[in-house]
Prior knowledge:
Elements: E1 9-14, E2 31-36, E3 42-48, E4 56-57, H1 69-73, E5 76-78, H2 84-92, E6 100-101, E7 112-114, E8 126-128, H3 130-139, E9 154-155, E10 164-165, E11 168-172, E12 177-183, E13 188-193, E14 196-197, E15 208-209, E16 211-217, E17 219-223, H4 226-229, E18 234-238, E19 242-250, E20 253-261, E21 269-272, E22 279-280, E23 285-291, E24 297-300
Amino acid sequence: xxxxxxxxxxxxxxxxxxxxxxxxxxxxxxxxxxxxxxxxxxxxxxxxxxxxxxxxxxxxxxxxxxxxxxxxxxxxxxxxxxxxxxxxxxxxxxxxxxxxxxxxxxxxxxxxxxxxxxxxxxxxxxxxxxxxxxxxxxxxxxxxxxxxxxxxxxxxxxxxxxxxxxxxxxxxxxxxxxxxxxxxxxxxxxxxxxxxxxxxxxxxxxxxxxxxxxxxxxxxxxxxxxxxxxxxxxxxxxxxxxxxxxxxxxxxxxxxxxxxxxxxxxxxxxxxxxxxxxxxxxxxxxxxxxxxxxxxxxxxx
Length: 301
């Protein structure tokens, strides 16, 4: 299809404080990564490829994890800004300058537009439009099919045979509670956040994904470029390289396995406990990235 001839977009989307919900456009993303930002709050990196939306956001600032994700998926990175340290690392990375679009690099309207709302802080009012972002990429001759370096995830319509029943899965980040409940009518998992159905402001419908992957990775607060910033610039490093444990939720079942990533341009790939490909359901995937050993996943059959 023609839509696969364009670059994926990774857009930073707010998830805290709760007043920013419901966000706009998450239900149109192919992949969503929920990760710690700071202060115990989480943030989303949402990848749009097979479809887009005219109102996506609110758009927030980039984190260290956003140096990894665009290289995995050969995507354009879309964000509101970043700390001095993260901006300096972006400037030094292969994605700069042609594969980043942000007001911090001089791009404003029509790509980023403010929609003020009473009771909503200024930093939560920035939104974007995927068609305009793809138009921006075309004008700069960077809107092309992505060049994936590895096959990445494997899919099959029928689930593996060794799953455990998983109708409900709950996860507690430091300041955000997440619940996924399987809907056998649609074959997807529905999301609740802090006890409330998590909807998309564009559709009014609850977020629903074919796959939920709970991925455990090492987290560490690091000093960014201490020779320049002298310990003032700190940020949370989420090590999405090497390997670690995962739990895949699909078709009302849970499957244990491992994630793998070798080179910086490699996509995440997944194997079961026997080392064979861990097969996802065709459709969209939500990643819950958690700290190794800290956020227990509770599954109810």
